[in-house]
Design brief:
By secondary structure, the protein is an alpha+beta fold. The protein contains ten helices and 17 strands. Pfam families: 2OG-FeII_Oxy (PF03171), DIOX_N (PF14226).
């Protein structure tokens, strides 16, 4: 399936076909083992806060209790989730129903994609205004503070009556020889959908709202699936695989390999999220924070790059239907806890992060300020074809 990603990689900018159409990708065949980090990848010193070398004490939730009907065990799991989500917005789950062999197969197909020749990956590059496609270091969107990674993004839209949309994407984008790759990711996305239903039910229980409330809210939404490759970097002390940010999306379902590098900001320091091969990481995003009326915290996190080995992860971002009003249930609003956010739609936030704002840690606040100031460009302005930093 091609040679493995190893050694340092460098950003490569082909000559644009049209003015201002710069597509940047990682090219491992260029300038192997460079010791000086290109300036596009260098992050400001105030963001390069050293890790604490401590681990986050997030709960590990056994989702199997949701199928047993043991209300005492469910209540205990819900309490652990509630405490974690109020503090930092992240927990891990086991017995999630996603087969480990399927997860391994998906990682194998990741290698198939990222080991393709440069020209083949470029054929799948993201188009302006689209969430789907290949991107290297977000170089097609940003000119500085680039993350040291390459990604492929595709969508499983729950509102479409199709059992092959992910498979169809891979065949139409990469060719019929990628039917097996598409089939693996189709099955993976279907398993993620079922898994997400259980998590949404547990989150509803933890908030004291109707246990089907969030599941029903997201029934006609969609999953943005993203596979990530973080090649090794010799000068890893001055860059990130992903910079500090909160996800503007609703919920993030992450499986990471055993290399490590994910960190969460809690108790005023950066704490490692330890990889677990049988677990998924769940973190709260900005949109779900609004759906809880701010009770749950959108998780501030970042990804470090390893100096010697590649890191891989698979991320599913759950989002509601674009035109559906994002509003916390009435039971979470009272005289003591008034409504914290005005109604908005996911389409509004997505458009904002695509055209005006590089998503970092303040997306909702900046968005509402932007609305209140006649939509003048915010200080953290991004290119017109930019999208969330994740």
């Amino acid at each position: 399936m091609g040679e493995s990603l190893s050694g340092a990689t460098l950003i490569h900018n082909p000559t644009p076909k049209v003015e201002n159409d710069m597509m940047s990708i990682f090219d491992k065949h260029l300038l192997q083992n460079i010791s000086e980090l290109p300036k596009e990848f260098q992050w400001p010193s105030e963001q390069l806060v050293e890790t604490s070398h401590e681990s986050l004490n997030e709960p590990l939730i056994d989702l199997g209790v949701m199928k047993t009907g043991d209300e005492v065990a469910i209540a205990k799991a819900a309490e652990l989730v509630r405490n974690a989500c109020m503090k930092h917005g992240l927990f891990q789950v086991t017995n999630h129903g996603v087969d480990l062999d399927l997860t391994k197969a998906a990682y194998d197909e990741m290698d198939t994609i990222f080991n393709l020749p440069v020209s083949k990956k470029l054929s799948a590059k993201k188009k302006e205004g689209s969430q789907e496609g290949y991107s290297g270091a977000h170089g097609d969107r940003f000119a500085s503070r680039l993350p040291w990674k390459e990604i492929l993004t595709f969508i499983n839209d729950y509102s479409k009556i199709s059992d092959s949309q992910v498979l169809d994407y891979f065949v139409s984008t990469f060719g019929p020889e990628f039917q097996h790759t598409g089939l693996v990711f189709q099955k993976y996305c279907e398993a993620m959908k079922e898994f997400s239903h259980t998590v949404l039910e547990l989150l509803a229980i933890s908030l004291g709202v109707d246990r089907m409330h969030y599941k029903e809210f997201f029934d006609d939404g969609y999953l943005v699936m993203r596979v990530n490759s973080y090649p090794p970097c010799l000068d890893n002390a001055h860059t990130f695989g992903t910079g500090p940010h909160t996800d503007p999306t609703s919920l993030t379902f992450l499986h990471q390999d055993q290399v490590g590098g994910l960190e969460v900001f809690s108790d005023n320091k950066w704490l490692e999220v330890r990889p677990r091969p049988d677990a998924f990481v769940i973190n709260i995003g900005d949109t779900f924070m609004a759906l809880t009326n701010g009770i749950y915290k959108s998780c501030m996190h970042r990804v470090l790059v390893n100096k010697e080995v590649q890191r891989k992860s698979m991320t599913g971002f759950l989002d509601p239907r674009g035109d559906k009003a994002v509003r916390a249930p009435e039971s979470l609003i009272s005289k003591d806890t008034p409504r914290k956010y005005p109604d908005f739609t996911w389409a509004d936030i997505l458009d904002f992060t695509q055209k005006h704002h590089r998503a970092e840690a303040d997306t909702l606040d900046v968005y509402f300020s932007w609305l209140g100031s006649s939509k003048s460009a915010p200080a953290n302005s991004a290119p017109a074809n930019s999208a969330p930093e994740e």
